[in-house]
Structures are given as structure tokens and as C-alpha cells.
């Protein structure tokens, strides 16, 4: 039981990089990017193929990041320069990447068993040390992202998702900031893919299916726990959201009448609920406030009428 | 400073909905000119602004700023010369970012944005000083998200953001029209102060006739995509709203039809 929780924490931390990528597109750029399902595998595919061909595992991991970023840039170009609807641009890239990923690997999957990887020295250590090392790395990347989002360029990126007309009038090329953001996002997603391939010891062309929804679930769970008041809180929320998601996932697997294949459905339902509830709540609140204020105003005018 | 030469723009060219947005417009602003623009519905006032700011490109004609031909540059590239305040108070600021962050982005108007830290201490000191000039207490709320501000506060911030880096051309696109009278008056007063203090070359579209006469040193009138009247400072001083409307009728042959007209 405890071992499966520890395992879930490691997975949650590694998947947190993917969730941070989804946070960049979904929350910062306000761009629902489906490239993620493909670029996640691209990261794993490039990394696993390079490692099994004898390249340095660190270099291979970095190459995975770069490959994902390139895929993201392509989606960004399709959307901004090709004027293709954002959802469609992502789907097109996702489909294209399926073939590309098999091409990269030369087969639908690559095994990394008994090969030295970035994580293999850690696998022999105690799980606590593994968790600590991964946590440090993930928090470091999170902090770098926080810092970036406060630079002049990072502010322009955030403004692109918040009010693109405004930031254009102040001289930012919003096509470029979108491409940059989608590229960075998919780079992080692919980095997660590369690390998870090494953690799990294989890459499979289907391992990215539903990744976008898992990313969304992590972002939304994190938001529900921490809120999004500041950038560093929001990114921390995403990391925690990812861990919580993995723990829930691990616990759900232990419920007898659940099949592991049901979990995608559960994830989807979770995201749907999390997206709908705030809207219903807001609508109800607005209605009650409106009613209360109307009565107040009515009372005031009645009072005035009485005095006159 | 700003020079438009024979600028024309058609909407939906070659279709049954073809519309002349701007026809053979010539306009020259001297440095420090503060020109107010009035006109009927669809006269081409907004098109004029959009052509200068780069949202639209002219079909024919030339736009120059400081002698440089700029009409082929996209909108974001023109921000080097042009500052702009929109009619919609929501349009000029990023609501989910703080006042300080919004000012930082405005501070970098038209410059390359790199990996340098955004809101540095030195910049924050400048922002604080600038916000104090508005006199509405925003300097004490620099970490507040702009989405929490009222429409008037947001428009005051937009005005500051577009002006404090001293653009060569300032475009004000009915920037008080969406505000209640008290807030509109505040923004009008701030506009007058800022434009005067910084000697900004300004083009201001307005529906408020009284405002059009009171502010600025020149007034132009537009109708059906053309600039039909250009009133210099000497004549503008003694002008009344009634005279202005009469003049419009005389030249265009019809009454000034503007849904949102405010006589003042």
C-alpha cells in the first residue's frame, strides 16, 4: 500500500512536468493544445532510441525536450501563420506525430531494460532518495519557469493569453509569443515523456493517449487546492495536482470492481465535473447577488419615495 | 510628425457590401498638435485610427511618421511610434496581471523583449511616481490584478501606459465614451494634462462635441470616408457646438447623424 503511494508520488512528480506544459497552453495562453498526446511520446521515442543506440542519457533526455518543442513550434506555426483553428492544429500535429514517433523508434515500442539511463542509478537507491532527487529537479524546473514568466518576454507571453490586442499595441508579436509558448509547453511535455520512458524502461507509441486530459486534471485539481493567485502558486498547484492525481489513480486501482482501463473514463469525468461546477456556482451566485441587490435598491427607492 | 497622403481603404472590395471606409484622406500633424476628430456614423474615424496604428493597411496611399514610411509595418512594429488608448476600458490592459506587470509591458513599448527581469526595483520606482500623477491612489495597489479595478481606473491606467513612454503619436479612440460622466470627466482632464505636459502629438476621436471644441488645438470633421473640414486653432477658440453642427450640415448637406453624439 505504502509502496504504491511512494510510486505514485514519483510518477506524479515526473508527470508534473507534462502538467506544467499543459498549464502554459491551457491557462496562460488560453490555447487548448492537443499536440500533447503526440509530443509526450516524441520525447520518450527520441530519448529511448538515442539511449539504446549508445548516446549519453542526459543528451538523449535533452534531445527529447527539443523534439517536443519543435513539434509545439509546428503546431504554433499551423495556428498563427496557417490560420488553422487551434484545436484542429493540435489534432493534426498529434496525428502526424503518431507516424513520426514510429519512424523515430523504427517500431511501435523501444525497450530500455538493463541499459543505463538518467534514472537507473536512482532505481537502486531507497525510494525516499529517488523521490527527493526527482522533487528537487521538478521544483528547479518549476522555479525556472516562474522566473521566465516574470521576464519581459514572459510577461508578453502571459499577456498574449490575457489580452492579445493590448500587448500587440505595445509591440509584442503575438504570433511569435504563441509559437514560443506552445513550443515551450510541448518541450516540457516531451521532457516528461523522456523521463517516464527511462523510469518505466520502455517507450510505446500509445503511451501518450489521453495525456492532455491527465494534464488538465492535474491543473484543475491543483487549482482547486491552492488557487492561482500568483504565478508561483499556480505552478506549485500544478505540481501538487499532478501528485494528487497519481495518488488517487493508485488508490482507484486497488478498488476491486474498477478495471485499470476504466481510469481514462474516471479522469474524463473528473475533468468534466471540475469544469462544470465552478460555472454553475458562479451562475447561482450571480443570480442571488442580483436578486439581493435589486431588493436593496427597491427598498432604497421606496424609502426615498416615502420621505418625499 | 504624422503625415497621411492620399490614403484610401475599401471594406469588402468587389462584393455587394463594398463600403468606402476612407477615401483620399490627406492629413498632416505637426509636432505637438492635439487634433480632435468628429464625424457621423461610418465616417471613417475608426478606420483612420486603425490605418495609423497598423490594425488595417491602406489600399492606396502613404502613412509617414517623422518622415519615415510606416504603412507596410504590422501593428506590433508600429508601437515603436504609436501609443493608443481604446474605447473599451477592458481593451488596454491585461486583467489577470497586476498593475505593476501591466506597466512593465507598457514600459517596453516597441522594444525587444528578452530574458531581462520585468518589474525591476528601478522600474517600479518610475511606475510609482507615474501612478501618483493620476491622483487616484493606484500607486498603493501596484500588486493588485487589473481585473479588480473599475472601468474608470482601468482607463486611467491605460492612458498612463500609452503615454508615459512618450510615443511620437498618441491615438485616443473615443476613450471616454464608455465611462459614466464623472469618470469621463476625470479621464478628459488627465488626458488634457498629460498631452500638454508631454507635448504629445495626438489624434483624438470623440462623440462629445463640447469636448472636441474644448480640447486640443485643431479639429477635423469626417464624413463618408473623407476629411471634410479642418479647423485651425484660431477659429476653434470661439467655436460653439451649434456652429459646428451648422458647418457640418452646410458641407455634407445633411445633419450630423451619430447615435452616440453628446452635445456637451
Keywords:
heterodimer, A: 308 residues, mainly alpha, ABC transporter involved in vitamin B12 uptake, BtuC, two-stranded antiparallel ribbon, 12 helices, 79% helix, globular, B: 264 residues, alpha/beta, six-stranded mixed sheet, four-stranded antiparallel sheet, 9 helices
Describe the structure.
The complex is a heterodimer of chains A (308) and B (264). With 308 residues, chain A is mostly helical. Chain A has a single domain (2-263), classed as ABC transporter involved in vitamin B12 uptake, BtuC, CATH 1.10.3470. Chain A has helices spanning 2-28, 36-52, 57-80, 86-105, 120-123, 127-148, 152-162, 164-169, 174-200, 211-226, 231-254, 263-307; strands spanning 109-111, 202-204. Chain A has a two-stranded antiparallel sheet. The longest helix of chain A has 45 residues, at 263-307. The radius of gyration of chain A is 22 Å and the shape is globular. The mean pLDDT of chain A is 92. Chain B has 264 residues and is α/β, with parallel strands linked by helices. Chain B has nine helices and ten strands. Chain B has helices spanning 45-53, 75-78, 99-107, 121-134, 151-163, 181-198, 209-214, 233-237, 241-252; strands spanning 2-11, 19-29, 34-39, 60-65, 68-69, 82-85, 169-173, 201-205, 218-223, 226-231. Chain B has a six-stranded mixed beta sheet with strand order 6-7-8-3-9-10, with helices on both faces. In chain B, strand 7, helix 6 and strand 8 (201-205) form a beta-alpha-beta unit. Chain B is globular, with a radius of gyration of 19 Å. The two termini of chain B are 31 Å apart. Chain A binds chain B through residues 148, 150-156, 158-159, 162-163, 165-174, and chain B through 53, 74-77, 79-80, 84, 86, 90-97, 101, 104-106, 108-111, 113-119, 161-162.
Amino acid at each position: 500500500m505504502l509502496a504504491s503511494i511512494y510510486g505514485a508520488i514519483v510518477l506524479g512528480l515526473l508527470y508534473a512536468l507534462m502538467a506544467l506544459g499543459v498549464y502554459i497552453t491551457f491557462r496562460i495562453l488560453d490555447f487548448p493544445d492537443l499536440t500533447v498526446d503526440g509530443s509526450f511520446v516524441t520525447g520518450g521515442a527520441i530519448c529511448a532510441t538515442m539511449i539504446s543506440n549508445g548516446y549519453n542519457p542526459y543528451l538523449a533526455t535533452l534531445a527529447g525536450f527539443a523534439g517536443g518543442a519543435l513539434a509545439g513550434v509546428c503546431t504554433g506555426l499551423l495556428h498563427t501563420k496557417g490560420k488553422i483553428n487551434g484545436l484542429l492544429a493540435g489534432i493534426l500535429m498529434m496525428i502526424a506525430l503518431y507516424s513520426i514517433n514510429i519512424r523515430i523508434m523504427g517500431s511501435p515500442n523501444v525497450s530500455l531494460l538493463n541499459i543505463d539511463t538518467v534514472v537507473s542509478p536512482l532505481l537502486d537507491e531507497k525510494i525516499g532518495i529517488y523521490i527527493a532527487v526527482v522533487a528537487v529537479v521538478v521544483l528547479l524546473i518549476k522555479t525556472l519557469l516562474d522566473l521566465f514568466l516574470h521576464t519581459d518576454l514572459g510577461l508578453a507571453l502571459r499577456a498574449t493569453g490575457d489580452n492579445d490586442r493590448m500587448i500587440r499595441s505595445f509591440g509584442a508579436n503575438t504570433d511569435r509569443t504563441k509559437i514560443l509558448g506552445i513550443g515551450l509547453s510541448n518541450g516540457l511535455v516531451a521532457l516528461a515523456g523522456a523521463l517516464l520512458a527511462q523510469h518505466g524502461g520502455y517507450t510505446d507509441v500509445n503511451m501518450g493517449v489521453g495525456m492532455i486530459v491527465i494534464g488538465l486534471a492535474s491543473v484543475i485539481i491543483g487549482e482547486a487546492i491552492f488557487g492561482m493567485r500568483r504565478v508561483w502558486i499556480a505552478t506549485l498547484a500544478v505540481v501538487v495536482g499532478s501528485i494528487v492525481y497519481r495518488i488517487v489513480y493508485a488508490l482507484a486501482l486497488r478498488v476491486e470492481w474498477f478495471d485499470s482501463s476504466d481510469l481514462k473514463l474516471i479522469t474524463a469525468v473528473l475533468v468534466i465535473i471540475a469544469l462544470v461546477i465552478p460555472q454553475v456556482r458562479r451562475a447561482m451566485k450571480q443570480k442571488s447577488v442580483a436578486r439581493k441587490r435589486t431588493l436593496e435598491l427597491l427598498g432604497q427607492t421606496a424609502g426615498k419615495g416615502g420621505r418625499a | 510628425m504624422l503625415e497621411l497622403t492620399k490614403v484610401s481603404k475599401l471594406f469588402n472590395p468587389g462584393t455587394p457590401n463594398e463600403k468606402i471606409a476612407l477615401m483620399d484622406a490627406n492629413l498632416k500633424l505637426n509636432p505637438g498638435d492635439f487634433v480632435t476628430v468628429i464625424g457621423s456614423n461610418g465616417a471613417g474615424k475608426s478606420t483612420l485610427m486603425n490605418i495609423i496604428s497598423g490594425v488595417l493597411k491602406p489600399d492606396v496611399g502613404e502613412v509617414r511618421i517623422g518622415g519615415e514610411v510606416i504603412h507596410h509595418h504590422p501593428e506590433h512594429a508600429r508601437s515603436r511610434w504609436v501609443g493608443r488608448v481604446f474605447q473599451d476600458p477592458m481593451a488596454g490592459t491585461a486583467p489577470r496581471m497586476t498593475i505593476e506587470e501591466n506597466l512593465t509591458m507598457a514600459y517596453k513599448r516597441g522594444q525587444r523583449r528578452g530574458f531581462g527581469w520585468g518589474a525591476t526595483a528601478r522600474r517600479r520606482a518610475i511606475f510609482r511616481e507615474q501612478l501618483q500623477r493620476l491622483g487616484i491612489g493606484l500607486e498603493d495597489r501596484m500588486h493588485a490584478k487589473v481585473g479588480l479595478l473599475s472601468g474608470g481606473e482601468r482607463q486611467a491606467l491605460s492612458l498612463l501606459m500609452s503615454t508615459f513612454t512618450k510615443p511620437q503619436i498618441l491615438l485616443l479612440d473615443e476613450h471616454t465614451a464608455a465611462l459614466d460622466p464623472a469618470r469621463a470627466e476625470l479621464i478628459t482632464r488627465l488626458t488634457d494634462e498629460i498631452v500638454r505636459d508631454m507635448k504629445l502629438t495626438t489624434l483624438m476621436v470623440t462623440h462629445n462635441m463640447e469636448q472636441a471644441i474644448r480640447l486640443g488645438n485643431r479639429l477635423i470633421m469626417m464624413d463618408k470616408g473623407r476629411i471634410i473640414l479642418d479647423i485651425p486653432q484660431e477659429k476653434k477658440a470661439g467655436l460653439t457646438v451649434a456652429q459646428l453642427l451648422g458647418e457640418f450640415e452646410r458641407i455634407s448637406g445633411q445633419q450630423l447623424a451619430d447615435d452616440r453624439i453628446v452635445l456637451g
